[in-house]
User: Which sequence fits this backbone?
DNA sequence: CTCAAAGGTTGATGGAGTCAATTGTTTATG
DNA sequence: CATAAACAATTGACTCCATCAACCTTTGAG
């Protein structure tokens, strides 16, 4: 194939490697092929996510936090769930964001145990710039023929809906 | 898993002002829509990559190293390039993998400055199991109708070829 | 031979992540 | 009602990841 495919070709697309699913064997085969290719492309692209976050002087995780904190106030524990990490980790994470004036801890009135996180004005502004940058499509998408882009978009819309 | 779908909708798919015709300005709009959706789905999936690596008692980065180290011996500096991180970081990384008997440093004979990294037998075995696990398609792929899976696979094949 | 450049290591420092233990606040139960 | 259990957040100890600056050895060019 091409120069890239070596890093995932030998163990990757092996149809029906085990008895794992109860579904039809053919479905799993195509799904695995699609996933393997998707995974490879994405992994190459995700390599520069740290650099992207660094454009805003954010760590990758801080960028992720800002992304989640967009719409509504979140409790610390909810954020820990989104990040699938320990609650104690979120404490330090928010400490640093708060020290930079991007985020604010606000005690909940219904339940005085929880602290709600809200973006400051500066935090919301930074998030806006970050999101615009994050959603710039990478080259492997812009280089596609438009019909592929449309098909990809529609497939992803359906996948999101049934999730 | 739940409560996710709202986190990417407000700044994300903005059709960039222009009317989306078949021209190049319209192409960018569709590309951005496709990318935004893809990005969101992928980011939710990537959240549990640490857990996946942990099934093999590996950190995410160690899993990435094992993946890269599949076929051929790599110099430390080459690995640092792949990981796009500092060379001094690789030292400790390889130290820990070597201490677990997964990787071996081997001095190059052409250039006695460089050290080549090779998988041990145990390392290769672990890598095999890891790769098989990594390429198991996630639910958002297996839940697709098969024609979407086929279309997705073909789109990704074309994208890889023209990369 | 001399000296600069390259490959790798070391030490200092800081963010990210976990676990165990603690404090303060609900909520459930006897 | 009183007390125990559950929960939210924090702290402290510890490990890994990551960077930078300084260093040593080897290489290669002049």
Assistant:
């Amino acid at each position: 194939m091409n120069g890239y495919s070596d890093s995932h070709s030998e163990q990757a697309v092996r149809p029906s490697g085990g008895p794992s699913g109860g579904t039809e064997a053919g479905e799993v085969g195509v799904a695995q092929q699609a996933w393997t290719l998707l995974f490879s492309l994405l992994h190459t692209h995700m390599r520069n996510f740290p650099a992207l976050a660094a454009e805003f002087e954010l760590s990758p995780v801080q960028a992720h936090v800002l992304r989640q904190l967009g719409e509504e106030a979140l409790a610390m524990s909810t954020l820990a769930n989104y990040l699938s990490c320990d609650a104690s980790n979120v404490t330090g994470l928010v400490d640093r964001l708060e020290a930079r004036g991007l985020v604010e801890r606000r005690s909940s009135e219904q339940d005085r145990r929880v602290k709600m996180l809200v973006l400051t004005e500066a935090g919301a502004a930074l998030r806006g710039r970050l999101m615009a940058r994050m959603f710039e499509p990478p080259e492997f998408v812009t280089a596609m023929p438009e019909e592929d882009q449309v098909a990809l978009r529609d497939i992803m819309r359906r996948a999101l809906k049934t999730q």
